[in-house]
Amino acid sequence: MPEKMANTVRLFERAGGEFYSVHGDDARFVARQIYKTNSVLKYLGGDQATGLPSCTMSRMVAETFLREALLVQQLRVEIWVSDAKRSQTSSLAGSAAWRLGPKASPGNLQELEDILFANSDMTVAPLVASIQLTVAGNQPMLGVAFADATQRYLGLTEFMDNDLYSNLESLLIQLGIRECLLPIAEASKNYDLQKVQAVLTRCNIVATECRRGDFQTKNVDQDFNRLLEDETPFTMRPEHDLKIALGAAACLLKYLALLTDETNFGRFRLFQHELSQYMRLDASALRALNLMPSQQLGAHKTMSLFGLLNHCKTSQGARLLNQWIKQPLLQLDPIRERQTLVQVFVDDPEMLRVLQEDHLRTMPDLNRLAKKFQSGRAQLQDVVRVYQCVVKLPGLSTVLGSMANEAELLGKWYLGPLEQNAEHLGKLQELVETMIDLSRVDQHEYHIKPDFDPTLADLQGQMQAAMDQIVAEQRRVSEQLHMEMDKKLKLEKSTLFGYCLRLTRTEASCLRNKRSQYIELSVQKGGVLFTTAALKALNQDYRAASDEYQKVQSTLVKEVLGIVGTYCTVFETVNGTVAHLDVILSLAYAAIQAPIPYIRPTMTDSGVLRLVEARHPCLEVQDEVAFIPNDVAFARGQTEFQIITGPNMAGKSTFIRQTGVIVLMAQIGSFVPCSEAEVGLVDCILARVGAGDNQLKGISTFMAEMLETAAILKTATDRSLVIVDELGRGTSTHDGFGLAWAISEYILDQIQCLCLFATHFHELTALADQYPKVHNLHVMAHVNQGHGSGGDGKREITLLYKVKPGVCDQSFGIHVAELANFPPSVVSLARRKADELEDFASHAATESGHPHLPPEKSTLPYTSDDERQGRVVIEQFMQEFGAIPNIATMDAAQTQAAVQAHYQKYATDIQGNAYVRHVLQTFGPAN
């Protein structure tokens, strides 16, 4: 068996798919993720230490795991099947020849599509992209091809990028790419490919390796001619000029194996994506604004903007909403059209309810059904699902047509497309009602009408005659056993025995000593199954007629499926119309159901951003949260750059994030959580928020800050919105402040965009003295001096969460430590040291003539080299001390003796390092 790729889980099919087994690390992973315990593990060939960990999953559990692995965990999945005769037992032992069966990855779900979405909706599109990179004169040029094999469309784009690949990052986020093809093996020799890989990692996209030879374009023209539904020769299309993207397309087509399935021929749509047609977002903004659900946000749907706005009743609507959030618009007219449509349903809540509950709730995903018909995997049940959708559409059109407000706009987006396809759909409805027995659908039985074909009618007559005799036999047995028919003696259809009789286990005692008349079939928890010689013969007659009926019907079913398959283009058009309506209704519902209803923002191209009583849409709906609204006011040339200071936990981050979220909501056409709002269009939202380390990816806090900030400085334009939170935390105070000041000046002088800059460097507010465009804000807090012994009583801090003009003139870190119940001795020492540093800072600032500089490192009695070397000494000391045998169980005297002995070992290093001496002096004498 070949070595598996990274992030791949292998399942082994057992008993013809009745259950599956997993082994090794995969078994441990399944035990943790699905069963939440290791007790399900068995160890083949040995014990826990020497055996192979293994566990099994039923078909239902395996389907749940596959959805979790592919759609949430972003893993690849392989299902291996045995060529040998499959065992019907649950034993995992024994050898067999295995071959690779269905496989799937986050961007290519084709082979497992029916399993994954048999009982659940596909709310996220599985997009996969291929990237071809060329560099000429230090200028990267990228060609990108992407595809959704489920929805059957392909896209191409080419663009130049900077050395941080910011354009690529924006593209991947806009499209919602889940997997990307790259010649990874070349990355060790190609620094630019390493940068591209870093972008994929930041965007949480799976990287799949391909060979450089896969990018050859020798047959790509021919391949497109076979796949595209448009009959225009590919060489005549404008996309043919995208030579670099065509290489990426060649690789993509090979990976998806689209040419190996003839049902794909003539079915794909192709378009050229323009990066500049939508607002650009970077990965940091996606996370900072909590736009999409994530494992970090937890299971509560309202913790993300998508979860909050997603009141869609159809899976196609949820997919489109996901796309809208990642692709905010940049043109006023389309935004205002969406707003007007939302306004129509906000003004008529009852019509909104009727459309959502009575018309859209049961609407199937017509795109997925269309693909089943095109690929030959559809069944009669799928025809009925299409029919159930078709019969609802006239009612939907009637409801929409009855709305007087904005009738022209409703006609353009909904009534027009529905009416254009009404004639085609009417013919389909007539076909289904003529050929399919709809009276049996409620029993989940799907059959061609018997009277549609003379042979079927004759066989139906035979089946009915046999059924009548079966019921007569039930009545005879009921009278003979004195058991009331259908209440005590029941007729059942078993998959194993066909039609048979059932009594409860208690009542089955009447069958004793009558074995010559009654044949016991099975004893089950629900009762005893039995039959008679006559019932057995009748059952065989019924089964023979039924089998022949299915054989004759299968030919007719094939004809029906072929005819319905010709309507796939109509299905896709209707599906797009339904999805658009579903999203508009969802946005209207979110606006109405908010704790305080959302309002329609005024959209302009003036660069003004004015939000009155703005609220964070996700936070205001959380339990036990009384959200404090705040105003936001940006004006070009006056308040472009806003610095926000204030205590930790006071709401600085919430304030700047909610501004970004509201701007994005406005540009997707949504109403916003404000009492008034005027939003000038921005071309991108870029964020540097949070100081979390990324050590698993080998990136420190400071490096992450610098990478994200560099991307902002290279990407932002004068029409952008930049959000910065606590820049400079990951390095020394002096260096951090210097960088924050320099970056702020660059944004003010060179970029001149709207910027919200939350900082703990109060000295940064002095920028307002040099730049009229800088506006200082602070988050209010009230501190009461407590009364305690020695004049060092505990202080009380009240966070008011209100943003006001002006500067916060003090830091509240120690007060927050008090709120967190730090030991009084620690708080006291922290306050004393803070006072000392303030004295040092004041003296240093006076001497240097720079009153806004924060404390310098030179005020401390050690150098940076002393600190670096001293930290190594302390770490080694603590590691060796912690490794002393039985240290945790020693009494005080023994511990003190151990400390002194260990100290002597390091005495020279300790006394020779100024940093270590300073640390020891802070906590008292070393001995």
UniProtKB/TrEMBL annotation:
Coarse class of the primary localization is nucleus
For the DNA mismatch repair proteins mutS family domain, which residue ranges apply?
Answer: 720-736
Concerning CDD domains, the annotation shows: ABC_MSH2_euk
SUPFAM superfamilies, alphabetized: DNA repair protein MutS, domain III, P-loop containing nucleoside triphosphate hydrolases
Q: Which Pfam families match?
A: MutS_I, MutS_II, MutS_III, MutS_IV, MutS_V
| Any one biological process term the GO annotation gives | mitotic recombination
Give the CC-aspect GO terms.
MutSalpha complex
InterPro entries the UniProt entry points to: DNA_mismatch_repair_Msh2 (IPR011184), DNA_mismatch_repair_MutS-lik_N (IPR007695), DNA_mismatch_repair_MutS_C (IPR000432), DNA_mismatch_repair_MutS_clamp (IPR007861), DNA_mismatch_repair_MutS_core (IPR007696), DNA_mismatch_repair_MutS_N (IPR016151), DNA_mismatch_repair_MutS_sf (IPR036187), DNA_mmatch_repair_MutS_con_dom (IPR007860)
Where are the stretches annotated Disordered? Answer: 844-864
What keywords were assigned to this record? ATP-binding, DNA damage, DNA repair, DNA-binding, Nucleotide-binding, Nucleus
Instruction: Provide the protein's localization.
Output: Nucleus
Query: Nucleotide-binding: present as a keyword of the record?
Result: yes
Fetch the SMART domains from UniProt. MUTSac (SM00534), MUTSd (SM00533)
Gene Ontology MF, one: ATP binding
Similarity comment: Belongs to the DNA mismatch repair MutS family.
- Protein function: Component of the post-replicative DNA mismatch repair system (MMR).
The protein's name: DNA mismatch repair protein MSH2
Q: Gene encoding this chain?
A: msh2
